[in-house]
Design goal:
By secondary structure, this protein is mainly alpha-helical. The protein is about 40% helix and about 5% strand.
């Protein structure tokens, strides 16, 4: 995926330079990753080989004392995207929806949208369990891009549980799914996820066989479309890795 991500970043860099020449509102590319610890070369971990992230860090601002507001995905994302602490967003767990208890809160992409930007989200930006019932319609100019729109290579098919592409893993997931139905489990995905152990995946498959490859392809397509319009854009691209089972 390195080549595609570089293309994504390069395309954005070209676009932002053109945008700056034409207007004072630059385009914005927001990239989110999942559960990435600062075990990076740019953070002093010499044994890590992370050249592309290091290059971005070298050209931008590197925060050495930034801390997660809550050690759970959904609340942390809600906090990051609003600039508010969890005690203000009201989201401390994976069950509370921010818009249900704090409907007037202003999120970063919503702010861009309110100021004339086209805002687009691809992949995991918010945790859908913790924002609103429709991936936070207030934040996005177009409907949120969901995984059901992705087309995986025929020889690999769709990953099981969104993560597992190995055939051996899919067999186990299928068995657990049957078991969940026979047990009358209300939430089959949760039932299977909790019982599939160990949560690891390491396969020499093309990027497109995993959701991150599909997310990147989708982002590149949107990038081409957004360049053709007059309004500036805020494109949010959220990758699944290195969240389990990849780390």
């Amino acid at each position: 995926m390195n080549g595609k991500i570089l293309k994504l970043i390069f395309g954005f860099a070209v676009g932002i330079s053109l945008s700056l020449a034409a207007q004072d509102r630059p385009n914005v590319l927001f990239i989110a990753v999942d559960d990435l610890k600062p075990l990076l070369n740019s953070y002093g971990q010499d044994f890590m080989h992370t050249p592309h992230i290091d290059k971005l860090a070298g050209k931008g601002v590197l925060f050495s004392n930034a801390h997660c507001q809550q050690a759970v995905c959904g609340p942390s994302r809600a906090s990051l995207l609003t600039g508010m602490r969890p005690d203000y967003t009201g989201v401390w767990d994976l069950k509370t929806r921010m818009r249900d208890i704090n409907p007037e809160i202003l999120a970063m992409p919503q702010y861009f949208k309110n100021n004339g930007y086209t805002t687009v989200a691809i992949g995991k930006i918010y945790d859908p369990r913790c924002v609103g019932r429709q991936y936070d319609e207030a934040s996005w100019s177009v409907p949120y891009s969901v995984s059901s729109e992705y087309t995986y290579p025929e020889e690999y098919g769709e990953p099981a549980l969104s993560y597992y592409a190995r055939e051996e893993s899919k067999v186990i997931v299928d068995k657990l799914t049957i078991e969940a139905r026979e047990a009358g489990a209300g939430n089959i995905h949760k039932y299977v996820s909790e019982r599939y152990k160990p949560s690891t995946e390491c396969a020499d498959f093309p990027d497109d066989a995993y959701m991150d490859g599909q997310i990147c392809n989708n982002a590149l397509g949107y990038l081409d479309e957004l360049y053709e319009q007059d309004d500036p854009f805020f494109l949010a691209v959220g990758f699944k890795r290195p969240h389990l089972p990849f780390a």
